[in-house]
Specification:
- With about 270 residues, the protein is α/β, with parallel strands linked by helices.
- It has one domain: TIM Barrel (Alpha-Beta Barrel).
- Strands 2-1-10-7-6-5-4-3 form an eight-stranded parallel β-sheet. Strands 8-9 form a two-stranded antiparallel ribbon.
- Strand 4, helix 4 and strand 5 form a beta-alpha-beta unit.
- Helix 3 runs parallel beside helix 4.
- The protein starts with a strand and ends with a helix.
Length: about 270
């Protein structure tokens, strides 16, 4: 089992601390979702002029960067910003080539007043363009189960409508479970063939779906793991600790090691 965390959980850490904690806690990789206040990390010198140097630091530490989590959306609020979304993916794809990262996360976005058939057709056209750009660097674009795209039937239809081998799904296990009422088995049965990465968190059930420490909520985390394992999933189990958006959550120094301990125990219990 390969474990990673997104930098959403440690928005103020520098590269030195990110690498040190990842190694000490027992992680295998780091998914960049912003760095010290800048969400579009490709704009920073550490990921542009000095990208090769940064990539080497991670490689020397035995850490992968499996994914760059972008802010790009298939359905942006302004129609004219589609080009900006595609350009963002293109910039991340070039960065992936330096870091040997395989994936770029994108959001589906809101569908507005469109019906789902029209929304899927429109989103597929944008995803096709993003996939073509990423494919030039041997990278895949993954649509996260998030925002309006939490019903796996819609996500499946989007994948089927996109004629590209360079697209897939990032399964954020929280959203289809809480917002669509899907069991892990139901989600996997619909979009399992396209799931190439996962985001993990724990939360309470109900309207608010309050986030909490891993293992302290009501999400059936063991069931999610069993479904993935039985399905032959061999990708990352990435902790998305949303400290940047929810400052009341525990600090990453506490949450990150606790996640590794929890997931290792989960794996051991499943193997027993």
């Amino acid at each position: 089992m390969k474990l990673a965390f997104t930098t959403l959980g440690c928005p103020d850490w520098d590269l030195e601390k990110i690498i040190a904690v990842a190694k000490e806690a027992g992680f295998d990789g780091v998914d960049f979702r912003g760095y010290q206040g800048e969400m579009a990390v490709f704009k920073l010198p550490q990921f542009s002029a000095r990208a090769s140097e940064t990539a080497q630091r991670f490689a020397d530490a035995g850490l992968e960067v499996p994914c760059f989590s972008s802010s790009a959306r298939l359905m942006p609020k302004e129609q004219g910003s589609v080009e900006a979304m595609v350009e963002e993916v293109r910039a991340y794809a070039a960065l992936c080539a330096v870091f040997r990262a395989k994936f770029i996360r994108v959001f589906g976005g809101a569908i507005g007043e469109l019906g789902w058939d029209a929304a899927i057709e429109k989103a597929a056209q944008v995803l096709q363009r993003m996939g073509d750009s990423a494919a030039e660097h041997g990278v895949k674009v993954l649509v996260e189960t998030h925002d309006a795209w939490v019903d796996s039937n819609h996500v499946k239809a989007l994948m089927e409508a996109t004629d590209s081998d360079a697209v897939g799904v990032l399964w954020d296990i929280h959203h289809p479970w809480r917002k669509s009422g899907e069991t892990p088995e139901q989600t996997w049965s619909l979009i399992g063939p396209w799931i190439l990465n996962t985001h993990w968190k724990d939360a309470m059930a109900g309207e608010t779906g309050a986030l909490c420490a891993i293992g302290a909520g009501e999400m059936p985390l063991a069931d999610f793991y069993k479904v993935l394992d039985a399905g032959g999933y061999d990708g990352y189990y990435t902790l998305e600790w949303e400290k940047k958006w929810h400052p009341e959550l525990d600090d990453a120094d506490v949450a990150f090691p606790a996640y590794v301990e929890f997931m290792n125990k989960l794996e051991e219990e499943h193997a027993a």
